[in-house]
Amino acid sequence: MEWREDCERVDWEELSALYRVAPLGDKPARDLAVVYGNSRYVCFVYDEQGLIGAGRALADGLDCSYLCDIAVHPRAQGSGLGKAIVQRLVALSTGHRKIILYANPGKEGFYLKLGFLRMRTAMAIFGNRERALATGLVAED
Predict the structure, then answer these.
(1) What pLDDT, on the 0 to 100 scale, is given for residue 79?
(2) Which of 23, 37, 69, 76 could anchor a disulfide with 52, C-beta 3.0 to 4.6 Å?
(3) What is the CATH number of the domain that holds 15?
(4) Could you list the residue range(s) of the whole structural domain that residue 40 is in?
(5) Residues 6 or more apart whose Cβ sits within 8 Å of residue 138
(6) 40-62 pLDDT per residue, tens
(7) Name one GO cellular component term (predicted).
């Protein structure tokens, strides 16, 4: 496997396809180029067949690093690649006072095993509030 930590040679259409099959939803290539380009840390993993994993972290250099968009191709799921991507982004984020992420419902156990703890005070405003409610990402109190 080849690991890359920059956006130099990324095929954004290939990354968009990875998001669809992972499945993390339909994210257009142009949007992924923007969000990865604005992320402090990025991670792309390739095998002989192409891109099989990716992730990124938004970070301010001192206080907070936010891990997001961890994607693993189905042919590599269960191999430990997702764990390795998270660990690489955590290592890159060393020195930040806190490293956070939010997990899709049902994936919390995976992140608990990697040392993350549940937050009791996390709040969010989603652009598509109804979808966030329907998928269990947020709850109305």
Answers:
(1) 97
(2) 76
(3) 3.40.630.30
(4) 2-101
(5) 124, 126, 129, 132
(6) 999 999 999 999 999 999 999 99
(7) cytoplasm
